[in-house]
Write a structure and sequence with these properties.
The chain is 26% helix and 42% strand. It is of the alpha+beta class. It is rod-shaped and about 115 Å long.
Length: 167
Amino acid sequence: MSKLLGVLFMAFTLVSIGHAKELTFEQFQESCENPAAYGSQNPPAKIKLLCHDVYNAWEPVESGIVKLSESRMISSELFSDKYHVSTDSYDIAVPERNAVCPRLREVVHTATIEIGKTCADVAGEDVTLEDLCREALDSAIAENPDLVETEASGRMFSVCGDATQKP
């Protein structure tokens, strides 16, 4: 699903930019300040910032069980004033103990937003596309958690792994 969203994101981007000339972010900022240097009379208008967020996380699922073997050994030795029976050991059967084993599944959270911007919004040396998108996404998701689509990736993790305890 996240691959499909990525393809749709790229397709939407290609359709929306049409025949627009591609610039770096720094060049775009400069085109706002000095449009003539980029062959225009006016600075860019109708600026849209498209932000796509993909966040992989682990969430707990029903715990598994791992069997732990336990052991018990008794030894004996007998003494008297005349005789001695040497030590002998006995293994005593003990049932296995079930232990809880936390399990997790990986999920992929995705969100896409489009926001209008102005040249003033993107101007300044300290402004980055990363910061603009992170702030916009965090704010939009906080206001509307339904923007986030969650899908299981298919990966599982068990803290105990497939390990079995050896005596």
